[in-house]
Records
---
Amino acid sequence: RCLGLRLGYGSVGGGCETLASLWGWPIPVNFLFSSPHLPCSMPIPRLPVPDSVLNMFRDKEEEVTDDSTKHGGRVRSFPHERGNWATYVYLPCEIQEELLELRELLVSRARRYAVSLTAMEEFHISLSQSVVLRYHWINPLVQSLKERVASFYRFFCTASQVKVYTNQHRTRTFVGLEVSCGHSQLLELVSEVDKVMEEFDLPTFYKNPSFHISLAWCVGDLTDKLEGQCLQELQEIVDGFEDSAFLLRFQWDQIRCRSGNKFFSFPLR
Amino acid sequence: MPELEETPVAAGEGKPELFFEEEDLQYEEEILRNPFSVKCWIRYIEFKQNAPRHVLNLIYERALKELPGSYKLWYNYLKQRRKQVKNRCVTDPGYEEVNNCHERALVFMHKLSPENAEEYIEYLRSIDRLDEAALRLATVVNDERFVSKEGKSNYQLWHELCDLISQNPDKVKSLNVGAIIRGGLTRFTDQLGKLWCSLADYYIRSGHFEKARDVYEEAIQTVMTVRDFTQVFDSYAQFEESMIAAKMETTSELGQEEEDDVDLELRLARFEQLITRRPLLLNSVLLRQNPHNVHEWHKRVKLYEGKPREIINTYTEAVQTVDPFKATGKTHTLWVSFAKFYEDNGQIEDARTIFEKATKVNFKQVDDLACMWCEYGEMELRHENYDQALRILRKATAIPAKKAEYFDASEPVQNRVYKSLKVWSMLADLEESLGTFKSTKAVYDRILDLRIATPQIIINYALFLEEHTYFEESFKAYERGISLFRWPNVYDIWNTYLTKFIDRYGGKKLERARDLFEQALDGCPQKYAKTIYLLYAKLEEEFGLARHAMAVYERATRAVQPSEQYEMYNIYIKRAAEIYGVTHTRSIYEKAIEVLSDEHAREMCQRFADMECKLGEIDRARAIYSYCSQICDPRTTGSFWQTWKDFEIRHGNEDTIREMLRIKRSVQATYNTQVNFMASQMLKVSSNATGTVSDLAPGQSGMDDMKLLEQRAEQLAAEAERDKPRAKEKILFVRSDASRSELAALSRQANPDEIDIEEEEEEGDESEENEPDEVQLEQQCVPSAVFGGLKTD
């Protein structure tokens, strides 16, 4: 190798060609470049930012005083920022007296296991994750959704299996009813919603989703407490609920999208 | 003696000599109005300066009667009186009078004494009692009512005091020098440099060198103007220098000691440091003067190169000091370079912090904040944090809590930046390369919704859509742009739109394309019509009907700017010839000749005639030439006549050539009569010298001398020619099939460029015309060459 290099230098008059042949040799890169002239990368000392600069415009900063009491101790999964519109797509559930009753039963039973559940005020099946939209995306996204779900027919599904869920960051735990019948229609819907999300490079729905209707929730990951004996008891309550077969059969006739404080509804055929 | 008569004082008590001259009246009126104004009296006196002494004295007396306390009047009066008796004998009674005058003056002026204080001080100085002199001077300076005899201002006196005490620190003991000068520093702010120097000078002279240095340091840290700074700095440098020189002298005299060596080195280092500090100090002065000078702040940072801590401090001070509304220069550049400084040091996180702070600054213009956001984004791009860059620009374009109009200066820029095209276009760029189709489209749509788009944005948008094969969407974008802009801004959009539309559909959507063209041409200014018409015609040619294409060209020739009409006709004729054949171009030519300017019509005629000629339609061609000749002044359009001549040589006969020449003359005559009549009158005399010329063309007398000379030369040449031996009388019978050479000979003889030949034709028509034959042709070459030479002369 050394020889090859010398050869290269020896015939410098040859110009490019010799240089090319020089490069043709399998010379290790570090051999060519480890010259003492090259500056050794000294760690540059870190320079401070003066406090007085850091303290500038403190008052103007958008105070994200996440007063957790305002939303029942929930923790934001993404920070609030101006121009961000939290958005999700779901199937809304009509509220029935009996269902509320069932919810109360479940909440009170869970209390026996030292889990203080908060009752959900409305019921739905999520078809997307919570995503962040820019304001100017809302309309095109809604438009796209409308076009994609327009061809879907109304359908039924049943949900009678009690299950415990946590959110992505395990900051909340939910007790819900898993969909047993109607799964395939839901999957089809999700795949359309996912396409819309992809159009904006937004996260798609979970892989192999377990569709469910959440009935109650609590802060933190309390899966351990709720699984097992407790879950079994909750399931018994549901199974034993009067007319449950009829009650836990849901009909879907519209899809909704919520973006910030805006609601959009897409009726099914 | 007149003096004797007037000197009895009290003004003009009915003295018979008292009378006013005409010019005096205005002065008299003035003093009547303001009898107690010294100025008025002085003015009167000045005016009367050269009047006889008794008149002058009288005015002084009158003035002093009104103003007996005026020192100025008395002073001048007494001076005047003394001058009047200057060369007289002491016994002259005039002296007595003047003495009386002085006595009287003393009666009134008994209170005026301090002016002598200056003399006294001067005296004290001269006998070297400086301490006392300084004391006196100080009391004078402090006395506000003091009036200087020498007309010095309070500042001047004060400055004298300064000089006195600072230069003689050893002798002036009873005054607190430092306090006095410092007092001056607050009082005379326009002389700070000088005063600081005096103060330092005092300490130097009293041997307090360290104190002097302190004074200098204080001075250069506080002065506000470059002038003061330079004064102090130069004096400071001089001081240090002389200190070093003195030190060196003493060491060389007393021999070296180690201690001295160190001391000297210290002094040298100090001096050196002072000199290197100069730019920075000067910069400080400028910033003290105007702390909102962005440029000076940048300069300061540069001066601190290699000293990061100082740079940070400078930036920190700068961004906190400069008020964007008072700033000269762009405030945001300070923030940008501040962030860049951290970025260059590999501290992206800190650079981000700076940018975040910068986005909250209350800038003067929206554009500044927009720049800030863009720079922030650019930084992230430099470090390949593409998502971060996208996030930043998305944040920049978010709708603020309170929406405000872009130009509403009463709102902070943060509430207006969401309408800045700058941030939006950068976001559009980023979305195009980093985002999705939909997110990019959303951005462009948003830009359009905000009504901040430019034609370029529209075109970019449409091209972007086209790239993603959304052709109809792309056309929709153009349509939107067209509805947003008016002519001429909409031109680029139309141009791109139409081109793209044809590229896409060709002839498939002909009706729609036609509609578009009609829409585009509706209201299109002349200036922009050409391209669109050409596109339109091209469309019709390629995909539509030739007839339509011709109609479009026809319309185009009328719709474009007059300067482009000729070109348009050329294209029209060319296309018509290609599509329908040349015969179809006749009507176009006719139209063109009718419409175009003379110059272009002439071109058209020649080409028209040429075409007819090629078609073998000699008569038509000739008719065209003949028609065209009406707009061809032979003096300026030689080429046309040459062309016609060539044509006749090829296709004509003697008659036709003669006819051509006849036309030429008549055209010439037409043009001649149009020449300024006055000019012809004026030159009549001179033109008589060359009678033939004026006979031939009286209007031509408007020509200059050179032309006249030329003509005379030609005349001579013609005469010479006439003297030549005559050839046999051969009648040249020229038919249309006459040989070329014969025709050439004929025409050369009738060379339209040579006026003399025409003259000859006038004079000796017959002989000339019959003359030429082969032999003579050769001979004739000579004279024509001679003419040519003369002509070019």
---
Amino acid sequence: MSVVTVQLGQCGNQVGHELFDVVCGDAHDGQRRSYCSVSRERFFHQTERGDLVARAVLIDMEPKVIKHSMNKAANSGRWTYGDDAHFSQKQGSGNNWANGFCVHGPRHEAALEELVRRQVERCDRLSGLMAMMSVAGGTGSGVGTYVTQCLRDTFPKSFIVNQLTWPYGTGEVIVQNYNSVLTLAHLYGLSDAILVHENDTVHGICARLLNLKHISFGDVNRVIAHQLGAVLQPALTTDSHGLYSRNPLGELASALVCHPEYKLLSMSTVPQMPSASIAYSTFSWPGPLRHLRQMLVSNSKMEEGIDWQVRLPAASERSRSLTGGGRGGGRGGGGAAAAAIFNRSLANLLILRGKDVYSAETGGFEDPALFTSWLSPRDAFSLWKSPVPFNKYEKSATLVSNSQALLRPLDDMVRKAWNMFASRAYIHQYVKFGISEEDFLDSFTSLEQVISSYSQLS
Amino acid sequence: MTQSVVVQGDTSLCSAVGQCGNQVGCRFWDLALREHAHVNKTGVYDDALSSFFRNVDSRKSDGGACGFGGRIQHLKARAVLVDMEEGVVNEILQGPLSEVFDSTQLLTDVSGSGNNWAVGHMSYGSVYREQIVDKLRKAAEHCDCLQCFFLIHSMGGGTGSGLGTRVLSLLEEEFPEVCRIVTSVYPSPEDDVITSPYNSVLAMKELSEHADCVIPVENQSLVDIVNKIKHMSDGGKPGLTIRKDSSIISGQGGLRGAEKPFDAMNNIVANLLLNITSSARFEGSLNMDLNEIAMNLVPFPRLHYLVPSLTPLYTLADVSVPTRRLDQMFSDAFSKDHQLLRANPKHSLYLACALMVRGNVQVSDLRRNIERLRPSLPFVSWNQEGWKTGLCSVPPVGHSHSLLALANNTCVKSTFLDLKERFTKLYRKKAHLHHYLHVEGMEQSCFSEAITSLSSLIEEYHHLDATKGKLIPDAPRLSIAR
């Protein structure tokens, strides 16, 4: 079953391009036939001549990035974007969410819907839609939110997942926190699952694990694409009965999002190393899996500098979590600093790919102490496997978590946006295009609700 | 004289009004052609060229507009040139840039404005209103998607200052949705036009009310930079010769032959404009459009004065001498030697700051330098991470990379205080007032309103300044009932 990807804005289009590149390269003819054909069917439409055309819609309010992505794909010789699958205007959204959501979105609604419809119709069976965007700018965030709304209206029964890139904490866009707050608050009611990548985290991976001295956005995007590919490439799930699952987005959402108040998903992949080192490394399951588990427990974002001091609480201490039981992660400040505080999960999905997957020991991830008490670990933990090595790694493990991992970044984002809002700085720019102070307050309220919910997991 | 550049979706329209504006504008067009010639080797009329130029085939009967992808026939600047004297415009038309403009884009008169804002704004403003609007409309019609207007003028004279600000309000009336970015050359204290304080303050009111962004530039800063470069190149230290076409004061490689007196200074401003628009014209990993500049740098409508700095000033000719470290470029952008306005941003408060980087610079370089410089730059409490960044892959001619910093900083207050003081000195004695009051439409209230507007602007900056250094606690958050 196929996934239609909607690439929005500069980030969405750049990351989307890398994703198609990764999955196309991964499912090459040397791989097992069924893996290859499922992967191709999922991401590409095959023409009569056998050319692979990405099942993607490219949307941006200015033309340069789309043009660049399409050219790069065409030059790869392995796949292309459809000629009729893109939409751009001459003038961007000016980093203004209101401009994207209230002006560009509605203005071009019909054209955008038509583009998506065309891609959907080319699929024999639609597994779901994935919208890729950043939250900091104007098009990805504003137009992206509007488009998600349209997708929800047009395809009420389909799974819609949003892949969001969160900006560097120290700023790429000055009004990024406003744009992020407005986006997240609106998407929460529309999306089935929200997969988050933070530029700071990915940048750290590039610097410390991949040893890159000069890190470009291309490098960052390729890491994100690698992680997404590890999740979305074919896998055997408990429901798929020995065949590759045909419903990756649906199974992802149902495995991880058990309650509409909790939709934020983070992901980690091990190992990640410079590509030149891969051929010289030996891989076994126990080490990486142990690391991945501790990364989850201690909320470490990468496989280096993991804090092994953080332990799961004994049964008697079950109520202490990342926030020390108080509300508002990070606000009390002290809560996140204490060594014994761990990252509580609602649900986890572990995906293993490569040699000897069947012998990998994953019992540690089913420990009830990791989870809230609402679900039994059997329901809270899901395991997918694929015997096919992914993207040159002989063995790799990816963990997608619905946990408190994003609580601190979310809280920081809301705190900064709120401080700026308190002085009413830049608000006139949003009002100009149709977003009022009331709208801002509604969004702040929604997100405080989400923060509160995640803080109080027990 | 100001030049308006109309920026369309990916194009801009330039309006130059007055002598200064047109001289700067002329340098701008020359350097723009040079930059595009450097990058565009195929002779195909592409998106980047289209942002500033139309492609016209004069053999075609319908006026000859050619679309993208075709060969370059005749490039015409998307510009309107206005001057109330003929001298400068005529010179342009007789020079190598004459091909780039056609007569429909020009508006001239003969007698000038006598350094009198009122003559420029009121008299000529009324007489030529229709024609100006007409020319702007025609230029705008040639654009598929007009993104912004650039206005270039000086503040101290009569035409640039008076008629220029009249053009500005016409732009707002006729094209309210199109962004207006104004580059204003402010007079130095030693300016030889006695009435420049009057003209400047009267113009300031218009700028505060009708412009989206103003980039003030001081003549004295330009002079200082020119001297610094000349000193460097005349210093004669072996191995330290400057590559001629790389210095920001040089027009080398452009069409214009021998350099004229103000060319060096005007080239600096022209380079400023080229850098601001680079990301809109060329590709990059993090694009920064012109409307993003206004969005990110203007937190409150009237506080839209941005302090510019440009680096590097030149590249050394000897390629075996290692290029100055990239990090040095970032440090330089925050040094007073590279500012185009004499003010002290580090001692005041940053409200927002934009860094537009061109050339082979990656995001990690950008992040490293922001981390490094942040601690020494005081930012307002609600915008502690107030950085807007852009990465454009194409560097300017003669350089491997460059940086333009635009800072919304309360230090502009001192420039305005200075102006206010000079104004008051004259106004107290009613010096030269009658020249203005004689003009139809001009009243004493125009003066009092203008100075009030300036005073309240200064007050707004002062108010923000007062928060500097104070520890402002986080605003209390909303509490959610559970």
